[in-house]
Design goal:
The complex is a heterodimer of chains A (about 500) and B (about 325). Helix content of chain A is about 35%, strand content about 25%. Chain A is an alpha/beta fold. In chain A, strand 11 (about 265-270) and strand 12 form a beta hairpin. With about 325 residues, chain B is mainly α. Chain B has a single domain, classed as ABC transporter involved in vitamin B12 uptake, BtuC, CATH 1.10.3470. In chain B, about 75% of the residues lie in helices and about 0% in strands. Chain B is built from 14 helices and four strands. Chain B has helices at about 1-20, 20-35, 40-65, 75-90, 95-120, 125-145, 155-160, 170-185, 190-200, 200-205, 210-235, 245-255, 270-290, 295-320, and strands at about 150, 160-165, 165, 240. Classes of the chains: A alpha/beta (about 500), B mainly alpha (about 325). The interface of A and B includes residues 328 and 372 of A.
């Protein structure tokens, strides 16, 4: 049949795949076509829907609607087991190895080979692992313990583990993130070899310069929607960046310009090994500065160092022009710095405690009379904050876990404000918050500016940063790679800095 | 409107859930009163109160440790070594009062060392306190040669005295309760205890010195274990080398029955713990009054603990829904 032969060309197709989570549409009508035996790049910004799509293809999630075809045959719902039968495998970003076991044991974990006596056949496992390692020209000892390998080698083991399966489609989720240049070359050779043997690879990466080296085709997603597919050769990196970023700037940002006052915070050549490198910048009163960058660029890590949760190895911090030493969170708070975390539930909230407890935990010193907490003062302070930030809670003794995400975030803001900070660092302040509450958060940021605070906003949503910040600093692999005023900032320019494409540096 | 009725019902249910251990204690007392006429009289009630004192005081220290997400298995051994040291000092001619203070300080010191190892080196509390449980039981045996040491009636009042109609140990229990209740509710340290147990990562980012506060908590547990040791020894007028053996279990049981959560720190109150220890006290007393075999008593206690945990699990699930 003619129709069939046309389908045969594609090993994997999705048609109008949508995935909804309560309150969020993660994917909407996404259709992609992956040709057999190609390396297909899946591109998009943080939160564009790449991982959701991968999880649907590998059977972790099932789609809300839409069809999936593998080898031209429609598959209703892929389950993890079915994915295995369909010869689809995923190499995850995070390592799933057992550190106490050897390379060979990890490769065959869960499907160990046995001798006729029922004991583990180490000889055969070592032989097969050796064969795989030779085939892909990897220099590792099958008998070595994984815990003794470097992170990069561990990543290679993770890859070998998948290669030992008989697979038709391999999905690689940012595999080069932890690899050094040498190992990347090694990985690319593996990818080439796999393609020669007819394996199809779906390759997710943030490093655009890798595309030309190993990818044939690409698909770009943005905001959960399909944007474009094409041949890598026919597009420049800049084209791809602007497609990823899009140009839909709707005005949900109640930005108010403020007149910045004196400098409140300055960093000079601050370095923390592996996290931040030679960071220097300064912020003035009444200014909101955004930190842009890809996930893993070191934005939160930098903020944690400024806040004393971690320490810089080198460099100086000045508050109000005076050099300060910050060795702990308490030091930072004393110097008027406060940081609100990006993971509210994990390291922000005291979920089993009440709203007022959550508000005053960082400012108890200010409500003590002698050694005793003055409950009346605590009441009035928390009531004031409730009014000021419009926190919706039945009463101050309500448990915080019963509040909405937006109101929980406001309570954490209140906690920050009660320490009377001069510099407030907000890490992903609108993550997991609905649109209405987001605008409220932006208004609070305006108020903070108007009251003379310096605000640092870390966000993975570029439109948000461009909408609310006076200035944007871009980080790439722990280094400042660009700086833009509100007027100069465009998404393509920022993204190019975030990806570390150096030509645009002079725009900074 | 049915909505307001529903709301009211939910409120009633929530109140019952909140004070469930108090309701259980009340229910238990009513049942035992019906079953045994000897239960509700002055002598027996004071008897229960006095017997509960020792476990109650240890349990409150244990509860503080559980609140910060830890556990202290060494309380029984700390109790033994500190009373043994007190007894030995008394026998060298040191006044009972001073010897008692030394005992308390020793308890605090051992607790502090436990805490330092747990917080400073990030070792698991279960293992650290298991080790010190063994270490200090051994030291007690070495110090005493396995023989009881007489306290020469120096501090008898602590264990056997009365103020008006109330046994002095019960007064101590009350004071410890009030002090801890105040500390947990009205001081910075108390807030920090709940914060660390509730979310240790958040506590660090809130500017709390997590290590220092944890060490303090273990020290408090040590001091309170030593204090109840003094009460027992004073009443018996002798320091016993095997005193406090297994007491950690009753203390943990009282804390858990009183609403402390072993799976998540930061949950529990001193009031709950007192009620928890009285539930165990009344239960023991009732089983005695009803002539139940002591072998049964141990099992029944186990069932009650299990029931308390299941009840707690179910009611927290209800609240989430």
């Amino acid at each position: 049949m003619a129709d069939n032969s046309k389908l045969e060309d594609y090993i994997l197709e999705t048609k109008n795949i949508s995935k909804e989570f309560p309150g969020v549409v993660a994917l909407k009508d996404v259709s992609i076509e992956v040709k057999r035996g190609t390396v297909h790049a899946l591109l998009g910004e943080n939160g564009a829907g790449k991982s959701t799509l991968v999880k649907i293809i590998s059977g972790v999630y099932s789609q809300t609607s839409g069809q999936i075809f593998v080898n031209g045959k429609e598959i209703e719902k892929i389950t993890p087991k079915l994915a295995m039968d369909l010869k689809i495998a995923v190499i995850h970003q995070e390592l799933n190895l057992v550190p106490q076991l050897t390379v060979a044991e990890n490769v065959f974990v869960g499907r160990e080979m046995t001798t006729k006596y029922g004991t583990i056949d180490y000889k055969e496992m070592h032989r097969q692992t050796e064969k795989l390692l030779d085939q892909f020209k990897i220099n590792l000892n099958p008998k070595e313990k994984v815990s003794e390998l470097s992170i990069a080698d561990q990543q290679i083991v993770e890859i070998i583990k998948v290669l030992s399966l008989d697979t038709d489609i391999i999905i690689m989720d940012e595999p080069t993130d932890v690899l050094t240049d040498n190992e990347i070359t090694q990985l690319f050779e593996i990818v080439h070899r796999l393609r020669e043997t007819g394996t199809t690879i779906i390759y997710i990466t943030h490093r655009l310069n890798e595309l030309e080296q190993i990818c044939d085709d690409f698909t770009i997603l943005r905001d959960g929607q399909f944007i474009r597919s094409g041949k890598i050769k026919e597009y420049t990196q800049r084209d791809i960046v602007s497609l990823m970023v899009g140009h839909n700037v709707d005005n949900q940002f109640p930005y108010e310009k403020s007149i910045p006052g004196e400098e409140v915070l300055r960093l000079e050549n601050c370095t923390r090994e592996g996290v931040a490198e030679n960071i220097s910048f300064s912020i003035r009163k009444g200014e909101a500065v955004g930190f842009a960058g890809l996930v893993g660029a070191g934005r939160s890590e930098l903020a944690r160092c400024i806040f004393g949760a971690d320490r810089f190895d080198q460099g100086n911090i000045y508050v109000d022009g005076k050099k300060v030493s910050i060795h702990s969170v308490r030091d930072a708070i004393k110097n008027g710095i406060y940081y609100t975390t990006e993971n509210r539930k994990e390291d922000g909230l005291y979920l089993s405690a009440a709203v007022d407890f959550n508000m005053t935990i960082s400012c108890i010193d200010d409500i003590l009379s002698g050694k005793v907490i003055r409950k009346s003062m605590e009441n009035s302070l928390t009531q004031d904050m409730k009014q000021k930030l419009a926190v919706k809670t039945p009463h101050m003794k309500a448990l915080i876990k019963n509040l909405s995400g937006g109101n929980q975030q406001k309570v954490i803001f209140a906690r920050a404000l009660l320490t009377q900070p001069k510099i407030i660092i907000l890490d992903e302040p609108t993550r997991g918050i609905d649109v209405g509450a987001k605008t409220e958060i932006y208004k609070i940021i305006n108020t903070l500016k108007a009251e003379g605070n310096a605000v640092i906003v870390i966000s993975s949503e570029l439109p948000e940063l461009m909408g609310i910040c006076d200035r944007i600093l871009v980080l790439h692999e722990g280094k400042l790679s660009g700086e833009f005023s509100k007027e100069d900032a465009t998404e393509p320019k920022i993204m190019q800095c975030a990806f570390g494409i150096s030509e645009v540096m002079e725009n900074a | 409107m049915p909505d307001t009725i529903k709301k009211k019902n939910i409120e009633i249910v929530n109140t019952v859930i909140k004070f469930k251990s108090a309701f259980i204690l009340l229910l238990l007392c009513i049942i035992v009163t019906i079953l045994s006429p000897r239960f509700l009289n002055y002598t027996n009630v004071m008897n229960i109160a006095r017997q509960t004192t020792v476990n109650g005081i240890i349990a409150m220290g244990m509860a503080c440790v559980i609140l910060v997400g830890g556990i202290d298995l060494s309380v029984g051994s700390v109790l033994a070594i500190s009373t043994m040291v007190t007894g030995t000092l008394i026998n060298t001619g040191i006044p009972g009062f001073a010897a008692g203070i030394v005992g308390l300080l020793l308890g605090g010191l051992i607790g502090g060392v436990n805490g330092s190892l747990i917080a400073g080196l990030d070792l698991p509390p279960f293992i650290v306190t298991l080790a010190s449980m063994s270490i200090f039981r051994g030291f007690t045996m070495l110090l005493s040669g396995g023989m009881p040491v007489s306290l020469k009636n120096e501090i008898s009042f602590i264990g056997a005295g009365y103020i008006g109609p109330i046994p002095f140990p019960v007064i101590i229990l009350l004071i410890v309760f009030l002090v801890l209740w105040f500390i947990l509710n009205y001081t910075k340290f108390g807030r920090h205890v709940y914060a660390i147990g509730g979310n240790e990562q958040a506590a660090k980012l809130s500017g709390i010195n997590v290590k220092k506060e944890k060490i303090m908590v273990y020290a408090i547990s040590g001091i309170l274990a030593a204090l109840s040791g003094l009460i027992i020894a004073a009443r018996l007028n002798s320091a016993q080398p095997d005193a406090g053996n297994g007491y950690e279990m009753d203390a943990i049981a009282a804390a858990v029955i009183g609403g402390c959560s072993m799976t998540q720190g930061g949950i529990g109150t001193m009031g709950g713990v007192i009620i928890g220890s009285f539930i165990i006290g009344v239960l023991n007393n009732a089983l005695n009054l009803l002539n139940v075999s002591p072998f049964w008593q141990t099992s029944v206690k186990g069932f009650v603990i299990l029931a308390a945990v299941i009840l707690d699990h179910m009611t927290t699930r209800v609240k989430k829904a």
